[in-house]
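User: Just a sanity check before I run the rest of the batch. Below are the C-alpha cells for the first item. I only need the designed sequence back.
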C-alpha cells in the first residue's frame, strides 16, 4: 500500500468521521510529531492535514487568536523561529516540561 496516496484521504476521513465530537483519544492519533527524528518521516503537507483533521474533531477547542495558531506549531519547530514571541514561549514550555520530567 502506498501511504503517500492513501494517508491524506484517510487523515481527512478520520477527521470527518469524528467531526465536532471532541474525542481526545482519536485526536491524539493525529498529534503532530514532536522530535526531529519523527519530523523527518512525515511530509509537511501531511502534518498540515493532521492539524486540520485534529481540530475538526476537537472543534470546541479552536480559538480565533494568533496565540492559538502559534501553539499548534510543534514545540521543536517553535524553538527555531527567530525574533518571535513563539520562541520565548517554546523555551518556557521546554523548561516546564523538563521540570516535570525531573519530578517523575
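Assistant: Here's the designed sequence for the first item:
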Amino acid at each position: 500500500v502506498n501511504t503517500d496516496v492513501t494517508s491524506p484521504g484517510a487523515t481527512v476521513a478520520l477527521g470527518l468521521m469524528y467531526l465536532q465530537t471532541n474525542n481526545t483519544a482519536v485526536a491524539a492519533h493525529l498529534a503532530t510529531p514532536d522530535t526531529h527524528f519523527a519530523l523527518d518521516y512525515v511530509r509537511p503537507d501531511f502534518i498540515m492535514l493532521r492539524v486540520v483533521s485534529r481540530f475538526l474533531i476537537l472543534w470546541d477547542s479552536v480559538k480565533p487568536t494568533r496565540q492559538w495558531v502559534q501553539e499548534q506549531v510543534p514545540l521543536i519547530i517553535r524553538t527555531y523561529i527567530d525574533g518571535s514571541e513563539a520562541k520565548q514561549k517554546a523555551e518556557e514550555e521546554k523548561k516546564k516540561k523538563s521540570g516535570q520530567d525531573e519530578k517523575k
